[in-house]
Task: inverse folding
């Protein structure tokens, strides 16, 4: 595996890093008050960041998958909120149409999603069906040339802000996983009701809502793939999505590490910077080792994906390890900062709050271990 980035990838890193520092950093305080970063997303759209790996023929930037992962990594160093919005929009909001849609569906939706005119969301989880995604209960019944959807979805990232939702329903309840189908549902669909906003521990600028479908009418042409393809569509896109969440975790962990190093060099106790105390130096060494290990796992998964190689195991390993690292490194960062780390005057408490959900969404750490163990035992 070549771990050197290409010139084009390095340019992407620099462009996103500059954008994050000049445009997003000053906006973080607003997002921390709960503001959804519409304006930031608009600017990202004009820079081509809302469709990085989407082919140019569908209005995307036509760049490689690693460049997309670099963008999530760099954005998340400044704002994990912006990182997750982009990851969900692209990996699970746009890609299902790109990989499973008809030519008509692609032409209708992808240029709008790739330019940022539309925002995408993904609706799999339900109140009674989280890790056990195959047990979902939302139903779609075909009637008079339409599907009528009924049911509830929860924890929908970008919900209430999105223009299109990839919605998983059962079209054949007796068939279990093989009876699950996926639809593209537009936001103005009658019967699509945006419910309660979740009050979360972190990622305050990212909207997470409950959604319900109350006799929502969806045209037959919005079915993705064939009836019964839904579970595979969900799983295949989550494989890719998990690399995005690994990159988001990596960004949080790296920000926590870099802040800790700078703080430890400045903070003087017992007559010298705390970085010169072995207890802190060793802590920083462990944090750096975990961050670099996460980086290798994340970019290895991205490299496989980019080259069209199987990456399910590697994506799960990257997400499992990078999210654990984000949580551990953010916890240690607060320890390095001491009492100041526990206040909102410094960003490390935000990293800690934002990191936790990386061990939960797009498959909990326990689910990643199920996926990995299935691969290694195969
Ligand atoms: N790609 C393609 N197909 C796949 C697949 C993959 N990665 N993984 C499984 N499949 C297929 C299998 O081949 C199998 O098909 P056949 O029956 O034809 O052989 C079928 O799917 C069933 O596979 P399993 O028996 O492995 O399924 P399972 O019921 O044991 O579940 C699971 C597997 C890994 C536990 C799965 O349920 C899972 O990933 N759960 C977690 C769900 C999840 O990640 N939710 C996140 C919600 S989305 C989110 O968080 C987004 C957000 O807004 C931030």
Result:
């Amino acid at each position: 595996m070549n771990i050197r980035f290409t010139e084009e990838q390095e340019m992407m890193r620099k462009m996103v890093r500059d954008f994050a520092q000049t445009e997003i950093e000053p906006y973080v305080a607003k997002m921390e008050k709960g503001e959804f970063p519409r304006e930031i997303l608009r600017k990202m759209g004009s820079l081509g960041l809302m469709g990085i790996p989407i082919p140019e023929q569908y209005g995307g930037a036509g760049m490689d998958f690693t460049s997309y992962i670099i963008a999530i990594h760099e954005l998340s160093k400044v704002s994990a909120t912006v990182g997750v919005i982009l990851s969900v929009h692209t990996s699970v909001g746009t890609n299902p149409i790109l990989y499973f849609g008809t030519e008509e569906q692609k032409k209708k939706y992808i240029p709008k999603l790739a330019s940022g005119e539309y925002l995408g969301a993904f609706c799999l989880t339900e109140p009674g069906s989280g890790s056990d995604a195959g047990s979902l209960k939302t139903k779609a019944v075909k009637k008079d040339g339409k599907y009528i959807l009924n049911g509830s979805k929860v924890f929908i990232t970008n919900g209430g802000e999105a223009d299109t939702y990839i919605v998983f329903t059962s079209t054949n309840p007796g068939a279990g996983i093989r009876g699950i189908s996926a639809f593209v549902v537009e936001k103005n669909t009658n019967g699509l009701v945006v419910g309660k906003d979740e009050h979360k521990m972190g990622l305050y600028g990212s909207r997470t809502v409950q959604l319900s479908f109350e006799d929502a009418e969806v045209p037959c042409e919005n079915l993705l793939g064939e009836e019964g393809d839904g579970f595979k569509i969900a799983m295949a896109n989550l494989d890719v999505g998990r690399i995005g969440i690994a990159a988001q975790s990596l960004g949080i962990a790296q920000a926590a590490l870099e802040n800790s190093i700078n703080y430890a060099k400045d903070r003087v106790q017992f007559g010298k910077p705390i970085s010169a105390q072995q207890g802190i130096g060793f802590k920083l060494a462990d944090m750096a080792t975990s961050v670099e290990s996460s980086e290798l796992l994340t970019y290895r998964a991205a490299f496989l994906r980019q080259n069209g190689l199987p990456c399910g195991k590697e994506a799960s390993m990257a997400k499992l390890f990078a999210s654990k690292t984000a949580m551990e490194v953010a916890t240690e960062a607060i320890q390095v900062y001491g009492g100041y780390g526990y206040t909102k005057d410094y960003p490390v408490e935000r990293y800690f709050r934002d990191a936790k959900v990386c061990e939960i969404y797009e498959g909990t750490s326990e689910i990643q271990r199920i996926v990995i163990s299935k691969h290694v035992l195969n």
Observations:
- The two ends are 24 Å apart (CA to CA).
- The mean pLDDT is 97.
- DSSP finds twelve helices and ten strands in the chain.
